[in-house]
Amino acid sequence: MKRVYNFSPGPAILPESVLQQAQKELLDFQGTGMSVMEMSHRSECYIAIAEKARDNLRKVLSVPDNYHILFLHGGATAQFSMIPLNCLGTKTTTDYLHTGMWSGKAIEEARRYCNVNVAMSCEDSQFMTIPSQSTWSLDPDAAYVHYTPNETIGGLEFLTMPDFGDVPVVADMSSTILSRPIDVSRFALIYAGAQKNLGPSGITIVIIRDDFVKEPLPATPGLFRYRDQIAQDSMYNTPPTFAWYLVGLVLEWIETTGGLTAMEAKNKRKAAKLYKAIDESHLYRNRVDPHYRSWMNIPFQLADPKLDALFLKQAEALGLSNLKGHRSVGGMRASIYNAMPEEGVDALVTFMKSFEKEQA
Ligand code: PMP
Predict the structure, then answer these.
(1) What residues flank ligand 1, with Cβ below 6 Å?
(2) What is the C-alpha to C-alpha distance for residues 72 and 329, in angstroms, rounded to an integer?
(3) pTM for the complete prediction?
């Protein structure tokens, strides 16, 4: 068996030790004689697995006690609707920052339920930089302000959190959660699809401050009501049980590898190495403003796009997989989430240098 360095944007690489543990426990979970996949979500054994994962997330991310942690279906995309359905309260207007493809989708969905004020858009720069906050039109009376700290496709990231004043802040952290410590108390709601830094696809984490859970809009389906999901510990219906268990294993892996501080140092080093290799070369280019370059998703273009196919073929042959960029951006994209070992980035940099030499 040979495992590759998988640079996929998601579903993405998982820590090898997590996969091994899941394999070891697959047929007989801790003497129960069955797989976690075969357990009732109401069983004592499964509830212990679910609660442990939730408690570990609270610990690893330092989530304060006045926040609920939910494990839901529907991906981050379901949250694009659930947030306006549940968090408008008596208000009708919301603020959204438009920083790329994913915030664009969140805006599109929110427009079904409320007035969306696009308080800032990076469209003028083709999403390569973020305009100065003095030009934003934040509404101090908005129900909330929604932003996407890391745009997975464009590779544009807020490296520091903007100051949103007293308006509750909602963040789509799908491709950045757990990459470094954050101050959860600055957010009213954080959500993330799991399939990048948390585990496999099929499960989404929502961290919501208790006062931000409002009366849902009347037509909100039961499954989509935060209030009811909170009351039922995310078991309003059958949750994605195996995915939830795997998220628990990933959290244990983060803890045993030094927690988020160690993760941050490693991620910073990995990103710096790759950007350095890109910036020092004549063949590769990343167009994102260096002040807003993502640590997790690094798009880069080759000076001659006719070389793309050869680059990808040679990379694949070396076990450097899934480097093809998103169709809207073209070129390459290396997603280097928590589980990407530093050696994976080193191998990519070595290959990029030798490929460039060959073309010179
Ligand atoms: N937001 C961001 C930032 C994403 O990267 C993605 C998926 N790549 C989504 C939302 C959508 O997630 P899902 O497919 O889980 O609905």
Answers:
(1) 10, 75-77, 102, 148, 152, 172, 174-175, 193
(2) 30
(3) 0.98
